[in-house]
Each structure stands twice: as structure tokens, then as C-alpha cells.
User: What shape does this take?
Amino acid sequence: MDFNALAERLLPGEYPALETFEKRYPQRDLPAKAEVTRLAPSPTGFIHLGNLFVAIANERIAHQSGGRLFLRIEDTDLKRKVDGAVEAVISALDYFDIRFDEGAQIGGDETYGPWYQRQRADIYRAYAKELIRRGRAYPCFCTEEELSAMRDVQTANKETTGYYGKYAKCRTLSEGEICAALDAGKPYVIRLRSAGDASRKFVFHDEIKGDVNVSENDQDVVILKSDGIPTYHFAHAVDDHLMRTTLVIRGEEWLASLPVHLELFSALGFRPPKYGHNCSLMKMDGASKRKLSKRKDPELSLSFYRQEGYHPFAVKVYMLTLLNSDFEEWHAKFPDKPLEEFPFRIGKMSKSGALFDLDKLNDISRTELSRLSEGEMLAFLRGWTLDYGGERERAYFADEAYLREVLALCMGTAGKKRRKDFVTAKQALEEIGYFFSDYRQRDAYRVDPQTRNAVISAFLATYSHENDAQVWFSKVKEVAASLGFAAEMRDYKANPDAYRGSVSDVAEVLRIAVTGRANSPDLWSIMHILGEERTRARLQAALA
Assistant: This one.
């Protein structure tokens, strides 16, 4: 067969010599052992926790080694493309402080662009044409119906599905048969002519999983679709070579495709990058574990964390605890050090599933938010409110001095001990709602209505906004004693049957009347911030 003539027939026209691409995309001028990593999402509009998981690892490895991290958009499948998806990807990763050095809509060094695969179509065709010339690729005219019927037969026979061996019927077409099909205008794709044997295995060193046994590829995978646009498999091999990627970290679901990718690099004459296949994110479902699901688990989407108001730093801290087994100990020892100072190691990444626990994230979020100043918290809450809040939340920012006073109390920055009441921006704004117009009784009184009214009435009779905290509490104790409650906790503990309850029960009645909840920061301070008029009004309303 005249492969040169076939290549010209399938991909007519002049393409640059492959050597020109090597000159156009030179080796990067980087320090020894510097790693070039990438994130290469499809523009589907859905960016998930797994993307962030991989992005953090890629960013840390690249920058810690003095290398580069770039963003490539793999838009070869137009059917999956969603308008605005690229902007959504960049916005989401920027929110979590993933710092790209170059790439789609990032800027930076344009030497290795363009960063959209559809804009690189001629590069892929040039390499595909060369594979045809060397007899390593051929046209396939099989229809979707024929391929579907083939898969049905393979499934019925319990065979591996795919286009290989005796099922690769276009692989053995003669030159005359190919020309006849082309003359008839039959649509075709270009397939790799695999040289592998699936019965042969070899050991591959995975940067995360260690040595793994891999079968050779025997699948004649599609490399160019009928519209001349490459498949992911082919495009990524060409791009990772020309963009000088040294390390690819990706989900373990891609481990099954590794033999295809390694053969493509070999067929193209490229040295493959190192590969590391990270573990899947799992969650407990009853007594068993399963992978996080787009359909079942809203927390898989990165938009969930922004809409709920998780601080990006807290999410990143949690991701690092899942990524490197010794990060949690390091961060506990050095809580004020920048995360960039942590010595991230690919060898510390989990080889099996990482268990994602929303409760653990919430605990970390409480801790990280408690470390903010009230000014930092105010800025964080304002940012979330502008993006996701309503008129009610926006009204909280009308008096910034008042809001700062509220935050100082609720965070404990005004005292010696920090509080950990806040988990997210959304929850924090709900928590402080009682300082504003959003007062509602959230918790039930544990006393009967008559006792409740007696406590409130007795307190109102002596209440003065001018009293300091010590005098205020002495009056609460007097109310307790007058109604048969123990004024001192030690007395109640010594003989509980002698009292209706303790002073803490009386304080709880007042707390619920004023704030709507049984637990809150210091009640005297809350009343002081609310002011006498609003405090009296709430106590009077509670009597109704």
C-alpha cells in the first residue's frame, strides 16, 4: 500500500514539518528537577471537588519545585461544551487560590499556546498524517450501528469491548477498498494501528501508586474524528509533549487508559511524562464507602462551597489533609505559616480512596474562621453577601461599626478566648440575625409559660441598661432566688431537689426571650449591643 498517497488522500494539503513544532515549542528553561504540571478540564460547566483536589496537588508540586502550572482547555467535544464554562473554571479555581502561571485566559508566557485544543487542530492533523505515512494509522468507515452491533456481540461473548483484533475490520482493508469507500463519500475516522498485545503485561511506575502491572494496548483507538478534530487521547499526547509537561496527576479512573496513552507517545516518538493517578474521593453511605456522586452529593460541586459560604482557605486546608498524610500535624504545629511552606510530597498522597467527611471540613472551618480578625471576617461576609446574599443580609452592613461590635463578641476577639460558632458565611449571617431585624424564637423554653412570664416580669422590674455586668448578674440571681431557683450553682448541685432549678435556667429564659436561642455569647454583652429599647421590646414581646 502506498501510505504516502493514502496520507495525502485522507489529509490533503501541506502541513509544517514536524521538526518545526519542536523548534516552535522548545524545552522550557527551568531549574533541574522542576516539574511542569497542568490542569486540563473540558468546558462542560461543571467543576467539581476532584478538579480542586488534583489542582492543589499540581500547583504545589509545580511551584515547590520551581516549575510551571498551566491551564489547557480540552474542548474537542463540542457536544459537551457549555457557554461560559471556561470563565466558571477560572473563577472557581481562583477563589481557592490556585495560581496558574499561564494558560487559557490566564495570560503569561504564550510560547506554548494556544491553550484551547480546537485552536491547535492543524498540529494534530500534521502528526496524524505522519502516522498514516508510517502505516501506524488508517481510516475506519464503520458506522455507529456497526460499532454498536460489534459491542453487543463482544458483551454476549464476555469479551473485552472495543475495536481490536478480529473486530477491527477496517484495519485490513486493501488500498482499493479504501479508495472505493472514499470515492463513495463514506465518512471516516482515523484510528491508531496498535502494535500491542493485551496478553503481554509490563510494570509501570506510577508516581502515586508505585509499581503497577499494566497490559499492552491492543485497541485501535480513534485519533481523529470524522470532522478532523482529535480525540482526547491523541490531543493530550501531542499537547503534553509540545507544552513540555513533565508530570500528569489525574484521577485513578484514567489508569485504564494508560496503555493507550503510552502507546500513543511511543508511536509519535515522544518521551511520555510521568503519571500519577490519585485516589478517588469517597464518602460513607451507611456502613459502606462509595465514590462521591454528581447526582447524589451536592458537595461534589465546587459551587456548593461558594454558595454555602465556606472560606476558601478552610476548604484548601481540608483538601491538603486528604492529599498529604502529614499535613494535618504540620498545620497544627504551624497554624500561622503560609500553606506554601508545607513540604508537599507526591509520595505522601494516598494510594487508595480518600474519605471525604463534611463534618471534618466543618470542624476545620470553625477553627480557621475563629482565627480571623473581625475586620477579616467582615470582609469575608461582605464578599459572600454581594454574591449570594439577599436584602436582609445586605442590611447588616448598613452600620459597619455596629456589625464589627457584633462580630467581636460572637468571635471572642473582644475577650481572651476565641469562639468557634461560625462554620460558613451563610451560617454566620444566620447566627447573628438576632442582632438585627431577623429575630425569631428558634429554641423552645424549658419552663412553663407561667414561669417564663414570672422570670421576665421580675427581671424587667429591676432592669437598668446602665448596670455593669456584675450588677446585672446579681439582679438575675435575685430573680432566681425570689422564684425558688438556686441563686448559686454550688447550692443547686449540693441539693437539687430543694430548688425549681438553678440560676442558669433563669438566664436561659432571658436568653431565649432576647435572642430566640438557648445558647449564645455573653447575654449582658448582647443586651448592651442591642440597646435598652430593643432589649425591653423583646422581653415585653416574650410575655405575650
About this structure: The longest helix spans residues 49-64.
